[in-house]
Design a protein that fits this description.
Elements lengths: L26 H10 L23 H11 L15 E2 H14 L7 E9 L2 E9 L1 H12 L3 E7 L5 E7 L1 H8 L3 H11 L11 E4 L4 E5 L2 E4 L10 E5 L22 H4 L13 E12 L4 H10 L9 E3 L19 E9 L3 E8 L9 E10 L3 E11 L2 E2 L3 E2 H22 L2 H10 L10 E10 L12 H10 L2 E7 L3 E6 L2 E5 L7 H39 L7 H31 L10 H10 L1 H88 L4
Parallel strand pairs: 9-14, 18-21
Antiparallel strand pairs: 1-5, 2-3, 4-5, 6-7, 7-8, 9-15, 10-15, 10-17, 10-18, 11-12, 12-13, 13-14, 14-15, 15-16, 19-20, 20-21
Length: 687
């Protein structure tokens, strides 16, 4: 993913002296200047400007990116002004639009990104420009932009940016033609009113909208490539007497016959040869799940494996059965009924017309929860296995991540799916995984630290490894590069270290899972705080009590599942045996670099900390349940008191009615007697 720098965009690297944008009167003057020199001098208007040591070249794309950010977010110039910021995800979308429009001379590649909406995060594959991200870091180092760290409602980290006053003074000196190139893709096109476009997310797509103009961005439309892959599992994961893995090497030429839908013109800085890829994740597994899985896949049958699907047969007595296209074929390699299973999976999911994907990978499922998906990359597009670019590999890895999640969803039990959906808040199909890239050769072959150049090499490695943490030379020929989302070992002796790499990866998979678990504890804690708030205001809304009961039930279920996941984590760590120190020099150096024992101790410490957090949450929930019971009791007592008061009122009213009735009866007797005497008196002739 190296940057394509045009000659007229390069900037003379200077130290100790100012460089400046020459004032340009019109476009014709710009063209004349380009003919005179291939160097553009840039002036920082307010202060002396030195390029940081080891920084990448400053290009016009840096200037355009600075102007792009200034269109949306600038620092306040006075106490009365409002600070404005642009979030990193919308900025990523805008940078992609700039690349597609040709205004930003960067490459892009797919990467998994967390996107938060309505208090809930989900993972999306987006076309990310690592060069653009590197350029943002360049601007921050020059203090042209500020960075702001905050959190979303579900406690995911969010970064926002704004242009500083120093950056705005720089922007004011920029030629108009550079600004116009940015305005063309950040404003609504004719015939719509020329308004600044905003970025929003509708749950599925990113929307560019402004005034009467609206369109869907293709930033989340991941490009497909044709490729051929054979199944691969390291020798240390397989039984000695197991079947050999199949090979699709004879079909490598079919990849060149297929199409790709890559929209960008790719340029390459690093190529790999003899490439084996492992993608790993940790899933809660127990011995009973492994036994059930072996039985489901027919490991003990005479005819093992076959096609399988997660579709539930609701009418098993009917004659016909129909399922959607895209079944997966399984071939059992070897297994232990209680501890593990190894098999090949041939993916038959439908692809776009013209895309050829011969996708076979080996799968290893272990009782300790480690899950590995491996493949030998025979060819990608028109490139054979001895010359594969990281740009193409990044797009292949997207397929592996997505398809492996679908396969595992078919293999897992309903209970395991419930655990994963709880940890990943319903987005388990897009959960993150760890990449292990093992290559027999790398071009160009450089000392390890030269790959961390803050430029072309490092940006391209970030496409498959994430943010780079460290790089080491293992002897004279092998290079190890470790990132947040993967590691790469390249060199002729790389396969000799598979066992050590897998032990390291096995711990990292648990560490990745713990990150998501820890975030989930924040969500649980926030839910408990909302319950307490509702309890304190229960008298204001009579419906609060039913809401409190529902939320307590949900929190109780989550705590039970979290404790069960913790027990799986603790058990998997207990069963891990310490790695053996290799006898060769390169292996010994790798052992020291990976420091597996310390990493395991750190993961053990984090698991114990999670146990305390869950215990605290459980105690809080019990306290809230008791308070809720007190409220229920108080409400019941109030009801009884009201009933008693109403009953007493009815008794008193009844007594009053009885007394009134007796008085009326006496009056009636008196009136009747009086009337009778009057009649007798008249009949007797009285006057």
């Amino acid at each position: 993913m190296s940057r394509r720098v045009h000659p007229d965009e390069e900037v003379e690297e200077t130290k100790g002296r100012n460089v400046r944008f020459a004032a340009v009167a019109d476009d014709e003057g710009v063209e004349d200047r380009r003919k005179e020199s291939t160097k553009i001098e840039i002036q920082e208007p307010t202060a002396h400007f030195d390029q940081p040591e080891g920084d990448s070249k400053w290009t016009q794309s840096h200037a355009r990116l600075l102007y792009l950010i200034s269109s949306y977010a600038v620092a306040a110039s006075s106490a009365e002004d409002e600070e404005t910021w642009i979030r990193s995800v919308p900025l990523t979308v805008l940078m992609y639009e700039g690349v597609v429009a040709g205004a930003l001379d960067f490459d892009y590649a797919p990467a998994s990104v967390l996107v938060s909406q309505d208090g809930k995060s989900r993972r999306l594959w987006m076309n990310i420009t690592q060069e653009g991200r590197s350029a943002i870091d360049d601007l921050r180092e020059r203090e042209f932009i500020n960075g702001l760290k905050l959190s979303s409602e579900d406690f995911q980290p969010v970064t926002a940016y704004q242009v500083t006053r120093k950056g705005m003074e720089y922007v004011k000196r920029m030629p108009k033609h550079l600004r116009r190139e940015v305005d063309d893709f950040t404003h609504a096109p004719p015939p719509h009113p020329r308004t600044l476009l905003q970025v929003s997310f509708d749950g599925e797509n990113f929307i560019m909208h402004g005034g009467t103009f609206t369109r869907i961005s293709e930033v989340s439309d991941i490009e497909d490539v044709s490729y051929v892959a054979s199944p691969y599992l390291p020798r240390c994961l397989r039984a000695m007497e197991g079947k050999s893995l199949s090979s699709n090497a004879h079909r490598a030429d079919e990849s060149a016959m297929g199409k790709t839908n890559i929209r960008d013109e790719l340029s390459e800085a690093i190529n790999l040869g003899g490439l084996n890829v492992l993608v790993g994740e940790w899933v809660p597994f127990g011995s009973n799940q492994i036994v059930a899985l072996n039985e489901r896949l027919g490991s003990l049958d005479r005819c093992q494996g076959g096609m399988f699907t997660s579709v539930v047969d609701k009418t098993p007595t009917e004659t016909k059965f129909s399922v959607p296209t895209g079944l997966t074929s399984v071939r059992i390699i070897d297994f232990d009924l209680v501890h593990y299973i190894n098999f090949e999976a041939e993916i038959n999911y439908p692809e776009d017309e013209g895309i050829v994907q011969i996708e076979n990978f080996g799968m290893h499922l272990n009782v300790d929860g480690s899950v590995m998906y491996g493949m030998v990359v025979e060819a990608i597009a028109d490139r054979q296995k001895d010359n594969l670019s990281l740009d193409l590999l990044s797009r292949l890895l997207v397929d592996v991540h997505q398809d492996s999640s679908k396969i595992m969803d078919d293999l897992l039990s309903e209970y395991q799916r419930a655990l994963l959906n709880m940890i990943f808040t319903g987005d388990s199909l897009n959960r993150g995984k760890f990449n292990i890239v093992i290559a027999e050769s790398i071009e160009p072959k450089l000392p390890a630290d030269e790959y961390l150049d803050r430029g072309d090499y490092e940006n391209e490695l970030k496409q498959i490894l994430g943010d780079i943490w460290e790089a080491h030379n293992l002897g004279r020929d092998d290079v190890l590069i470790i990132g947040r989302e993967g590691l790469m070992l390249a060199g002729p002796s790389s396969k000799r270290h598979e066992k050590l790499l897998l032990q390291y990866c096995s711990i990292l998979l648990r560490e990745m899972f713990i990150r998501n678990f820890f975030t989930r504890t924040f969500i649980l804690d926030d839910s408990l705080k909302k319950i307490r708030s509702l309890i304190q205001q229960y008298e204001k809304d009579p419906n609060n009590i039913s809401k409190i009961r529902d939320m307590l039930n949900s929190a109780s279920r989550d705590i039970i599942l979290l404790k069960e996941v913790l027990s799986y984590l603790e058990e998997s760590l207990e069963t891990m045996s310490p790695p053996e120190v290799p006898k060769d020099e390169a292996g010994t150096l790798l052992f020291e670099v990976l420091n597996i024992e310390q990493l395991k101790a750190d993961v053990d410490l984090r698991v114990r900390d999670l146990t305390k957090l869950i215990d605290g949450a459980q105690h809080e929930m019990m306290n809230l349940s008791q308070v809720t019971e007190v409220i229920n009791t108080k409400q019941l007592e109030d009801v009884f008191k009201n009933v008693e008061a109403n009953t007493k009122y009815l008794v008193d009213a009844s007594a009053a009615n009885e007394r009134a009735s007796n008085s009326l009866e006496v009056m009636q007797i008196i009136l009747a007697g009086s009337f009778a005497f009057d009649i007798i008196d008249r009949l007797a002739g009285g006057t």
